[in-house]
Amino acid sequence: MNIGFEFIKYSLNAKGRQGIHSPFVYNLMDKVLSRPISSEIKHRQKALFAELRSDNTSIDFEEFGAGSKKLGKQRTVKQIFTTNSTHKKYGDLLIRIMHSYQPMSVLELGTSLGTGTLQMHWGNPLAKITSIEGCKETFAVAKKNILNHSLNDQIHTKNCTFQDYFNEPITELFDLVFIDGHHDGNSLIEYVKKLEKHTHNDTIFILDDIRWNNDMFSAWNKLSSDHQYHLTIDFFKMGLLIRQPNKQKEHFTLRKSV
Ligand SMILES: C[S@@+](CC[C@H](N)C(=O)[O-])C[C@H]1O[C@@H](n2cnc3c(N)ncnc32)[C@H](O)[C@@H]1O
Predict the structure, then answer these.
(1) CA 75 to ligand 1 centroid distance, Å
(2) 70 falls in which pLDDT band (50, 70, 90)?
(3) How far is the CA of 161 from the centre of ligand 1 (A)?
(4) Residue 69's pLDDT band (boundaries 50, 70, 90)?
(5) pLDDT in tens, 166-180
(6) End-to-end distance of the chain based on CA atoms, in angstroms?
(7) CATH code that applies to domain 3-183+190-253
(8) For residue 91, which atom of ligand 1 is closest to its CA?
(9) Which of 93, 97, 123 minimizes the C-alpha distance to 202?
């Protein structure tokens, strides 16, 4: 995939508020994406990122899914932060979505160092967040970060593969699902389908790295053209799916800041 070319195509199609008739999407653009982020959260983001950016601890990375395009088995926390983590740009999107829609039950597939987890948590500290990470040593770093930077005990982490997680009984009904790992198109579709019975019509699915490779992009195109998902939004790196079966099928390519 030529990511530069893809970005030009996306930028030419991406809309702002004008000409949006869907009330949900208009509100998303008008209220959610422009919501100011508190100085307290900005301060927390800065502190966490500064810590990870200077952490030269080396860990033994156990690979699941399609694997990193850039890193080997031995990785420093700093390298993982630079290449695999949700940074401020898309972190702000997670925070704004959590703060605006107040989902109470959240599932994250792919904790990594816990930066996405913590940003979602700061956006809505009351939400119960379950986050799954396969790599043992990455999981240990995430646990430490979450312990040091969370505001309460609402974050529940599990060290297992996504496949193992789906083999256990899941009793929750999730209001928001963030799928950020594996990077394999068929697996992405499989996880979304498996989660159908653990989600409801207004659950927001956030899929990360939809343009990570051709395979992921083709999975995103399949999901976003699936008539089961009436509202689908392309934010370039992340894509959103919501079932909303009582609405007309609509797809939007949006700028993530207004
Ligand atoms: C891109 S990182 C997640 C980033 C994180 N969500 C954030 O916002 O900073 C993906 C993570 O998913 C984990 N992962 C990928 N496939 C997995 C699988 N099948 N089972 C468990 N963990 C997996 C990897 O070990 C990696 O740490």
Answers:
(1) 14
(2) low
(3) 9
(4) low
(5) 999 999 999 999 999
(6) 27
(7) 3.40.50.150
(8) 8
(9) 97
